[in-house]
């Protein structure tokens, strides 16, 4: 891995998934086995200590596995496999998507650009319920992914920003036992990162995550945490390529521009 050449083992890689349907469970488990062999599974405490102490004492780099969009498959398929292999997950949810009936969930996905790999005709639910999330938070971490899976843009007014950044957090906080301290931007396109949104995110969350593939290093700021996108249908060679460091190099200029835009 190229990054090991520059940073040794003193970094944490964050990967993100979306839908995790049952028919890809064995493929996803292969990903987890690869992560377990090559990385140290990071706990929430270790994650926070990394930013507070700026030290990493493990022999392997760390890895965090995150999931976007609040899919039922994340609860039913991904979380048991995470627990089987000793990982915690961060589940970033659009608050308005949770607990919707199947027909309403499908409409929400269409209206708000949420992708599902496939629909099973006899599936009862598409989105997670609040009870699913209460079970998840006992072993994992829940974060906000806006209210309506909203891609930020320069035209966002104060009302939109408050709903997507602040109200989403308040709603999840009301339903959960643990305080919501993490936010994840939606989309990842360069124009979806704005300074105005960043100011609200900084003032209401301890950490925020982006998707411009780069590990967390000892110099990473807590509101500019980058992730590398991987999906459950990726063959293992593609997972290895995504984490090799080549994509980090390809994304470096975009990452730097986005970080300048979102500096507060």
Total helical segments: 10
Give the uncertain stretches in residue-range form.
none
Structural class: alpha/beta
Distance between the termini: 32 Å
Strand content: 5-15%
Shape: globular
Strand count, sense and barrel status of the largest sheet are: 6 strands, parallel
Compact description:
The protein is α/β, with parallel strands linked by helices and 264 residues long.
Describe the structure.
- This protein is an alpha/beta fold and 264 residues long.
- The protein is built from 10 helices and 8 strands.
- Strands 1, 2, 3, 4, 5 and 8 form a 6-stranded parallel sheet that branches. A two-stranded parallel sheet has the order 6-7.
- Helix 2 packs across helix 4.
- The model has no long low-confidence stretch (mean pLDDT 95).
């Amino acid at each position: 891995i190229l990054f090991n050449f520059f940073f040794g083992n003193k970094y944490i890689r964050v990967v993100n998934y979306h839908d995790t349907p049952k028919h890809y469970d064995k493929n996803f488990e292969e990903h987890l086995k690869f992560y377990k062999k090559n990385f140290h599974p990071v706990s929430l405490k270790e994650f926070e200590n990394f930013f507070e102490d700026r030290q990493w004492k493990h022999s392997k780099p760390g890895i965090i596995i995150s999931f976007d969009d609040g899919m039922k498959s994340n609860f039913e398929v991904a979380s048991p496999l995470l627990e089987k292999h000793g990982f915690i997950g961060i589940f970033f949810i659009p608050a308005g998507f949770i607990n919707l009936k199947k027909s309403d969930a499908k409409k929400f996905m269409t209206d708000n650009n949420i992708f599902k790999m496939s629909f099973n005709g006899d599936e009862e639910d598409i989105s997670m319920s609040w009870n699913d999330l209460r079970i998840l938070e006992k072993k994992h971490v829940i974060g906000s992914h806006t209210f309506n899976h909203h891609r930020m843009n320069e035209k966002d007014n104060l009302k939109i920003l408050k709903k997507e950044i602040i109200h989403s957090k308040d709603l999840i906080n009301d339903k959960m036992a643990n305080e919501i301290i993490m936010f994840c931007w939606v989309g990842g396109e360069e124009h979806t990162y704005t300074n105005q949104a960043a100011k609200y995110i900084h003032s209401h969350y301890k950490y925020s995550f982006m998707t411009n593939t780069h590990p967390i290093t000892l110099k990473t700021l807590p509101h500019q945490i980058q992730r590398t996108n991987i999906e459950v249908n990726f063959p293992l060679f593609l997972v290895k390529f995504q984490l090799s460091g080549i994509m980090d190099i390809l994304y470096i200029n975009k990452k730097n521009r986005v970080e300048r835009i979102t500096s507060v």
